[in-house]
């Protein structure tokens, strides 16, 4: 036998039995985003490497260690996108979307060459939003309220919000001096990455995940003490808004985020239920990025959430893959007619999820497959039914006799909730 080829480490297939959870999350997220007036944007998975270097920052984990970059056959330096914001900004500038405020969302795979472990993959998926052209704390608040509504829509109640302000560039520069002085005084305690970043990008040291670094980080000076009047007011207004909306949060003065482009508001939603990889959603303001990438100065705020991490938190029973009906055909003539009948049924019942048996076999074996499919009912088509224009309907999820009904009466029968409604149907009726 030929040698099997396997998927790349850290890059995963979403198997048919897993996809309902993905679809559940994606559908709910899209519904919430549309309710806040966000429009979807899709950008290429590959961009010039320079885009990410210039936006995320040269001295960041992503750019230094994690990017899949390569030279293509034409000699261009390209990279698989490690995140979505840079591409959104690039596209918004390129297509002149920024002359008025924009609320945009995106979803899709991102690529980072990290050490694969629970909640950390080399291809992972994000859903993110970017708001352009609004500089007030009101829109920061809106973005966070949107995430809260999303958690509600997903049935997640175990997430906590951490918040910080990175101030503006001048304030950060002054803080940087104080931080460098502090870190120099604790140089012995720094791991090798942090020692290197002490000079190139000291704020990044606060983002270190190194266990030995946590005590040093906890005692470092607080950025919040360096905020000027305007940044302070922005932050306080946001905090007051969160209070008024009943959103609990903790201010975490060490929260700096792993990307260089943030300023003022930064936040993370964190769970304790996933072990070390507990941040499921992270974002903040990045007022300087549009100009940095060649656009006119345009304030912006956004977030990205980690789809895999959220999916792990979803209730196992939140979705069901089962079809409504499974069509079983007994006898040659019936088998010849089954697919045509299935088409007619789909025509007359637009919402019907119908699985039509293919491949023949005995009545018993077809029925077993019907049962295993998770369908609510089996529809039985035999020679008698063909002659009489009827069909047998046998409930599969509870005991009950097979009924013979005229095909014309089938829509009414299937619409009747005399079989338990599927969890999917329940969800559809409580759509957020
Ligand atoms: P972390 O601190 O966990 O490395 P990050 O700061 O690098 O996260 P962001 O770039 O802000 O993460 O991405 C936003 C979200 O995307 C994260 O909060 C997380 O939920 C998810 N995410 C980031 N990297 C990965 C990954 N390698 N695998 C799975 N999910 C990820
Ligand atoms: Mg990271």
How would you explain this protein's 3D organization?
- A hairpin with a 7-residue loop joins strand 15 (390-395) and strand 16 (403-406).
- The protein has helices at 19-35, 49-56, 61-66, 85-94, 137-154, 169-185, 192-200, 214-218, 229-244, 289-292, 307-313, 332-348, 363-372, 383-388, 410-415, 423-429; strands at 39-40, 46-48, 69-71, 77-80, 102-111, 123-132, 160-165, 250-251, 263-270, 279-285, 300-306, 325-329, 354-356, 377-381, 390-395, 403-406.
- The protein has 432 residues and is of the alpha+beta class.
- The chain contains 16 helices and 16 strands.
- The strands form 3 sheets. The chain has an 8-stranded mixed β-sheet with strand order 1-5-6-11-10-9-7-8.
- It has 3 domains: 18-167 and 227-313, Bira Bifunctional Protein, Domain 2 (BirA Bifunctional Protein, domain 2); 170-200 and 210-220, no CATH class; 325-413, Anticodon-binding domain (Rossmann fold), CATH 3.40.50.800.
- The site of adenosine-5'-triphosphate (ATP) has 19 residues, from strand 6, strand 10, strand 11 and helix 11.
- Adenosine-5'-triphosphate (ATP) is lined by residues 83, 112, 114, 119-121, 124, 126, 257-258, 277, 279-282, 304, 306, 308-309.
- One of its GO terms (cellular component) is cytoplasm.
- Pfam families: HGTP_anticodon, tRNA-synt_His.
């Amino acid at each position: 036998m030929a040698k099997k080829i396997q998927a790349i480490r850290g890059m995963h297939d979403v198997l048919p039995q897993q996809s309902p959870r993905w679809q559940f999350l994606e559908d709910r997220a899209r519904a919430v985003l549309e309710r806040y007036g966000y429009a979807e944007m899709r950008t290429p998975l590959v961009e010039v490497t320079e885009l990410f270097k210039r936006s995320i920052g040269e001295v960041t984990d992503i750019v230094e260690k994690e990017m899949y970059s390569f030279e293509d056959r034409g000699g261009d330096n390209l990279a698989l996108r490690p995140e979505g914001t840079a591409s959104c900004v690039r596209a918004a500038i390129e297509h002149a979307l920024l002359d008025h405020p924009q609320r945009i969302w995106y979803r899709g795979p991102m690529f980072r060459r990290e050490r694969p472990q629970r909640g950390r993959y080399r291809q992972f998926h994000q859903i993110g939003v970017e708001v352009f052209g609004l500089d007030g704390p009101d829109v920061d608040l809106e973005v966070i309220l949107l995430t809260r509504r999303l958690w509600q829509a997903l049935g997640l109640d175990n997430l906590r919000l951490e918040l910080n302000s990175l101030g503006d560039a001048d304030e950060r520069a002054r803080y940087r001096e104080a931080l460098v002085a502090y870190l120099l005084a604790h140089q012995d305690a720094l791991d090798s990455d942090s020692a290197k970043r002490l000079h190139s990008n000291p704020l990044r040291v606060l983002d270190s995940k190194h266990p030995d670094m946590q005590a040093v980080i906890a005692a470092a000076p607080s950025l919040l003490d360096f905020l000027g009047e305007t940044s302070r007011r922005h932050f306080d207004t946001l905090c007051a808004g969160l209070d008024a909306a009943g959103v609990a949060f903790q201010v975490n003065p060490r929260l700096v985020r792993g990307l260089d482009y943030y300023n003022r508001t930064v936040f993370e939603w964190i769970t304790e239920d996933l072990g070390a990889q507990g941040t499921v959603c992270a974002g903040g303001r990045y007022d300087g990025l549009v100009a940095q990438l060649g656009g006119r100065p345009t304030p912006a705020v956004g977030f990205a959430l980690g789809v895999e991490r959220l999916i792990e938190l979803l209730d196992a029973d939140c979705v069901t893959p089962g079809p409504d009906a499974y069509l079983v055909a007994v006898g040659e003539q019936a088998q010849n007619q089954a697919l045509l009948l299935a088409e007619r049924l789909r025509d007359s019942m637009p919402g019907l999820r119908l699985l039509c048996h293919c491949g023949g076999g005995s009545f018993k074996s077809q029925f077993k497959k019907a049962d295993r499919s998770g369908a609510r009912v089996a529809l039985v088509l035999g020679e008698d039914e063909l002659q009489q224009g009827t069909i047998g309907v046998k409930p599969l999820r509870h005991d009950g006799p097979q009924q013979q009904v005229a095909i014309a009466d089938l829509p009414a029968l299937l619409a009747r909730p005399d079989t338990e409604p599927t969890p999917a149907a329940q969800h559809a009726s409580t759509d957020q």
